[in-house]
Each structure stands twice: as structure tokens, then as C-alpha cells.
Amino acid sequence: MGFGTGFFSYPINVSAQSCVSHEHMAVISSALYTTYRIGYAVGSSVAGAIWSQMLYSRLVKYLGDSTLATSVYTDPYTFIAQYVWGTPEREAAVKAYGEVQRVLMSVCIAFVAPMIVSALFMRDHKLTNEQSLEDVEKQEEKDSLANFFGNFKKKRVAV
User: Fold this and answer.
1) In sequence order, what DSSP letters do the residues of 66-98 get, joined into one string?
2) Phi, psi of 37 (to 5 degrees)
3) Exposed, middle or buried: residue 19 (CB in 10 Å: 0-12, 13-18, 19+)?
4) Contact criterion met (CB below 8 Å) for 50 and 97
5) Which residues of the chain fall short of a pLDDT of 70?
6) C-alpha–C-alpha distance, residues 90 and 80, integer Å
7) Which are the contacts of 62, defined by CB distance < 8 A and separation ≥ 6?
8) How far apart are CA 143 and CA 128, in angstroms?
9) DSSP assignment, residue 38?
10) Distance between CA 120 and CA 136 in Å, rounded?
């Protein structure tokens, strides 16, 4: 998640914001954030479904014992404490986890492929120092919160 957020989410946000005017900035930001969260929910659901539907059956297949497979599935930390690297049981569990992980990565690549292809067709907007609102610094000086309270205090003293 850290890599994806840092290298994809923020640049996409900047790219989308560079395409809209100042008055539409909040709309595009909220649309992107909503899409990001929906995608996160769908991805988490699909990953959870793959793990829960495939892992136990693969553990039974490679371990050959449903009781041991249940132990690995429900309490993996106790299992790895009992069965160290090199034991047949541990190797079978690792093989089951690896197989499920391979399926999970294949599904992830299938989901990401359209995004990568669509990124190749994005426009290259130049980010300059130009602001979308004219005289924004002057406007900020007039509308700043400190000036508001300063003027409020002056009016109160005068009364």
C-alpha cells in the first residue's frame, strides 16, 4: 500500500487537479478519493475471497490431514512454532500458501493491467507557477482569519 499510495495515488491526484479550474478542484478531489476507496474495498474483498476460498483446500491437499490443515488455517503462529523449516508439514504449508499467493498476484495483475494501459493515454499537463485565481495573495490578505479577528477586536474596542 505504501508504494501504491506514494507512486500512483498522489501523482494521479495532481494530474487530475491540473485539468480542472479552481471551482471544480473539490469535486475532482472528492471523486478521485471516492474512486480510490471503492477500488480499495473491491480489491480487499477479492483478496479476502481468494484467501478464504482457496487456502484451506490447498492446505488439505498438500498436508493430507484435515486436522493439521485446520490448525494451520486457524492458528498459523502456533503451527510455525511447532514445525520448523525443513519439516514436511512446514514445506507443505508453504507450498499451499505459495500457490494461493500466485493466484492472488495473477488476479492483481489482471486488475492493474487496464490501469497501466490507460495511464499511457493520459495528457501531459505542464505544472507552472501560474495560479488559477488572479491576485490570490491579495485576496488571502483580505480574507485571512487573523485579519477577521483583528478587525473584530478593533470594532469591539471602538464600541
Assistant:
1) HHHHHHHHH-HHHHHHHS-TTSHHHHHHHHHHH
2) -70, -35
3) exposed
4) no
5) 1-2, 4-5, 131-159
6) 7
7) 92, 93, 95, 96
8) 25
9) H
10) 34
CB 103 within 8 A of CB 50: yes
- Distance (Å, rounded) from C-alpha 128 to C-alpha 138? 20
Instruction: Report the greatest alpha carbon distance in the chain.
Output: 88
**pLDDT computed for residue 44 by the predictor:** 93
The whole-model pTM stands at 0.66
Q: Where do we find the cell 488439505?
A: 60
Q: Which three cell numbers stand for residue 106?
A: 495473477
User: Taking the mean position of all CA atoms in its chain, how far away is CA 39?
Assistant: 8
What is the pLDDT, as a whole number, of residue 53?
Answer: 93
CA–CA dist 65, 16 (Å, integer): 53
Residue 149: the pLDDT is 65
